[in-house]
Amino acid sequence: MYLSNFDIDFVTEKSVKSGLKKLTGYRQKVQEVIKRNDSKQPEFSLAYVQNPGLYDTVEKIKKEFKSIRHLVLVGIGGSNLGTEAIHSALDSQKVKLHSLDTVSARNIERLLTELRKVKDAKKIAICVISKSGNTTETLVNASVLLGKLEQQFKKAIYKQTIFIGNPNTKFIKMGKKIGAQTITMPEVIGGRFSVTTEVGLIPLALLGYDTDAFVAGVLDATTTEFESVVAEGAVRLHQYIQKDYSHYNFFAFEMRLEKLGAWYRQLIAESLGKSQNRKNKPVTKGLLPTISTPVELHSVGQLYLSGFDGVYTDFVTFDDDSVDFVIPKKGVAKDFSKFTVQETATAIYGGVMAAYQEKNLPYRSTILDEDLTYSLGLFMAMRMLETAYVAELMDINAFDQPNVELYKTKTKKILGL
């Protein structure tokens, strides 16, 4: 993984050192949570992958569902974004992933139309994920989907279904009642941090990915080498927040990383978007996360390079040397014929960096290396840890989400539930 920063003048060696000093106690706490495998702390998300029981569960599921060709993922937010991000980046065609997140009758119908072509229930796996067990979107989608598939496959479809959530919920009990497999996750780990639990690892295993490589990346994120980088990144980001930088642009420079941006958007928005700090004082500074891709270089690129205030850009890409094309000597791009497509893409990336530097616009850049599965585990765990560090510097709780429950309550009130 190749990391770089371009900071503006208020981010100095002295200011970074001061911020790191403020983080000292919390950094030590996180290391203790990892060392003791402390399942009572929310930072346990970075330690949980050490547990042998998790490995055993993943291996068991892989063996039982080795014949599948379709995976239906029913969940929303932290229940599906991590899996979608990794699947989109790795771009495997071994198993087709279908996602049901928002409530949409049209999306359900499209999925059912495709699954009607499947003749054997053993070719399908369905993961229904709800941490709380009462997520409206997930319950509605799962109920309609399973009801329709029961008509097609009879009770056999339930043997192909896995319920994942907190222990002892009505949701998990219902899964057992209908004959689905039920897998529980640690209740202390929040949904947006759950890609390192059964929530992420079970679907990834079903999709045929190397979960061991992903876990190795997660574990390395808290080693001395990478943790120090995380801490400095958190301090820099906090300094921009303090200087009223309020727009955080995740620039997925490789289109397959756009879903990774969606996962990260939820992580920082839900973790840092709080109305009060721990002292019950109003939080007046924060980040509005957005996602861009190279498609937007001719739109928001113009906006940012014009000097639009308060934007911090996070460029993320990787070198994809698995496929490339030589640009023909004859044709509309003959001036570029001594280059390949990948070389041209690299030049565009470098050109954007140079333009940002010339305009004195702050950014950071991450280039994931060739072992992409490992790199994604490392990147995602580093960002989870960094977000916790930024929250600590802001004196807010990174692990609660009190305002998310409001729309859920209002929805059920409208429905009379």
List the helices and strands and how they pair.
Layout: E1 2-6, H1 13-36, H2 52-64, E2 70-74, H3 81-90, E3 96-100, H4 105-115, E4 124-129, H5 136-153, H6 156-159, E5 161-165, H7 170-178, E6 181-184, H8 198-206, H9 211-220, H10 224-242, E7 247-252, H11 258-272, E8 288-292, H12 300-305, E9 311-318, H13 341-358, E10 363-368, H14 372-394, H15 404-414
Parallel strand pairs: 2-3, 2-4, 4-5, 5-6, 7-8, 7-9, 9-10
Antiparallel strand pairs: 1-10
Helix pairs in contact: 1-10, 2-8, 3-8, 3-11, 9-14, 10-14, 11-14
What does the model show?
The chain is an alpha/beta fold. It has 2 domains: 2-30 and 216-394, 3-Layer(aba) Sandwich (Rossmann fold), CATH 3.40.50.10490; 42-209, 3-Layer(aba) Sandwich (Rossmann fold), CATH 3.40.50. The chain is 48% helix and 13% strand. It contains 15 helices and 10 strands. The strands form 2 sheets. Strands 1-10-9-7-8 form a 5-stranded mixed beta sheet, covered by helices on one side. It has a 5-stranded parallel beta sheet with strand order 3-2-4-5-6, sandwiched between helices. Strand 9, helix 13 (341-358) and strand 10 (363-368) form a beta-alpha-beta unit. Helix 3 (81-90) packs parallel to helix 8, helix 3 packs antiparallel against helix 11 and helix 9 (211-220) runs parallel beside helix 14. It is globular. The termini are far apart. The mean pLDDT is 93.
